[in-house]
Amino acid sequence: xxxxxxxxxxxxxxxxxxxxxxxxxSRVSQSSLxxxxxxxxxxxLKNNEIESVEIQSDRLLITPVEDENSPADKKIYYTGYxxxxxxxxxxxxxxxxxxxxxxxxxxxxxxxxxxxxxxxxLFYIVGSFLMNSLSKKMGGGxxxxxxxxxxxxxxxxTGVTLNDVAGQEEAKESLKEIIDFLHKPEKYTKIxxxxxxxxxxxxxxGTGKTLLAKAVxxxxxxxxxxxxxxxxxxxxxxxxxxxxxxxxxxxxKSAPCIIFIDEIDAIGKSREGNMGGNDEREQTLNQxxxxxxxxxxxxxxVILAATNRPEVLDxxxxxxxxxxxxxxxxxxxxxxREAILRVHGKNxxxxxxxxxxxxxxxxAGAVGADLANMVNExxxxxxxxxxxxxxxxxxxxxxxxxxxxxxxxxRIMTEEEKRLVAYHEVGHALAAAMQKxxxxxxxxxxxxxxxxxxxxxxxxxxxxxxLMSKDEILEQIVVLLAGRAAEEVVFNKITTGASNDIxxxxxxxxxxxxxxxxxxxxxxxxxxxxxxxxLDGRPVQTCxxxxxxxxxxxxxxxxxxxxxxAKTLLNDNLEALNKISEHLIQKETIMGEEFMExxxxxxxxxxxx
Length: 609
Ligand code: ADP
Ligand code: MG
Ligand code: ZN
Known about the structure:
This protein folds into three domains: about 150-270 and about 280-330, Rossmann fold; about 335-405, Orthogonal Bundle (Helicase, Ruva Protein, domain 3), CATH 1.10.8; about 415-609, Methane Monooxygenase Hydroxylase, Chain G, domain 1, CATH 1.20.58.760. It is about 50% helix and about 10% strand. The protein starts with a helix and ends with a helix. It is α/β, with parallel strands linked by helices. The protein is built from 22 helices and 16 strands. Strands 6-8-9-10-7-11 form a six-stranded mixed beta sheet, sandwiched between helices. Strands 1-4-3-2-5 form a five-stranded mixed beta sheet, covered by helices on one side. The relative contact order is 0.06. Strand 2 and strand 3 (about 60-65) form a beta hairpin. The protein has helices at about 1-30, 40-45, 85-95, 110-135, 170-185, 185-190, 210-220, 230, 240-255, 265-270, 280-295, 315-320, 335-345, 355-360, 370-385, 390-405, 415-435, 470-490, 500-515, 545-570, 575-585, 590-609, and strands at about 35, 50-55, 60-65, 75-80, 95-100, 155, 200, 225-230, 255-260, 300-305, 325-330, 440-445, 455-460, 530, 540, 590. Magnesium ion binds near residues 210 and 262.
């Protein structure tokens, strides 16, 4: 709106200026003036060559009679005004029209205004418009240096409530106190209780930290000042610090309110141990610390911050009186996932067969953002199939789309590749079935996916597990290696299709040795610790290099034993492997029930023999 107004006034000004310039120019260029001397004027007068004369204060403007040979040549002559009392008489007797202009007697002040001040004002207006739009385009960069124009994002009402955040019950519980405080600060200050100035929301990406902060503001019904950590870090030293100052000043004015600093690790990184240093970030951090100490929390300003790397934060930020509360926003468990699905399911039309519990079971490890995405993908699929309600099948397909990418129907595999992929996938499934004696998979497909998988086995989810026994981990490794084992047992040929299986099996085996104390060789000695727990959770070795070489040997042993076991398992069930694989090659996708039917028919036939 504002933009359009200024654009319109800019256009009007520009038009006005062109108009003025144009009229001025046209008056000058209309005719060319030529000076002549007074005697020439007198002779022209005698020869009747003059049409009219304009008597000005200092000169005479002479319009000659039109020349018939060249009528376009409209020259106007002028000559200096000579004191000549007979002039009027002479003109009259020669029959020349004469006059004197009224405008010529303009006061000098008006002339001055017209010729100097007006153009100056006009140019000033145009110039300032240009500057304005220029600096807007540059995002207030270099031109507004020194003047802090922090992109503070203020919401009077976030419109999000705690009901929109599902599956984070502990986090919500610990934030309720803050909400209550924002409602009635007096209740707390009366007793003399000091509320935490700030709370730090910690957890993996996509678990709903930003959402929770908004929900707190929404529940408390207070304004929400939010700024991302990277907004503070600018090219110029000192800008970030002044933004922090600004933010707190504004917030204090509209207390009670919430200040939310997202991704605070961008400024709050530990100051020790980073080489070279970053003056700007350090200054910003110092300013933040100073502001947090300086402001009076009894006024009702609460600072929330979010990060997924709490371990890199400066210790000074975490000491009491600053972000002394930590609210863990972890990946949701089974119940939590179901609740999140329900929250997002409210926004779409659902068919009767939708069962969110099943979906929750199939999505272990997914965070809130993934689940929200899945519900949306399911709705998109329902629309593209011309339905007006989301069915369970849409949801399952969406889970696969989010995990493994979209089906890639146009990718043509050769007959031989198809066979290999089918045996590989059935190998996984069969190994799982033989070890657990239950239906191992929800679905097996050999339709390639956009994210690279040629085939895909969707594991049958069991109960949510928090603990795994040593035997279970070994079984899992056998299942992972059974894909490659099937290739070798049946085709006596190995392919690149097992790379991901190998990676995961090796990781499991290594964790058994280094973290879970499950090897005879090292017993309970811890050899690795986890860094960045809320991001990738990368393990870091804590042992000497000789030990590390020994670890590799033990890991190799575990993997070799498991691979042998996988091959034995498949060799013992070759008939089932062949039957199920051939069926899969025919149909490209089979469900878990079909898998079990074929498996059971083979084994019962065997036991009759
Ligand atoms: P984070 O800040 O932790 O990275 P966000 O708060 O930005 O994650 O979450 C992204 C989106 O995922 C949210 O807008 C919401 O739609 C969905 N989401 C994440 N966690 C939850 C949750 N616990 N309940 C409901 N929706 C969630
Ligand atoms: Mg976030
Ligand atoms: Zn595999």
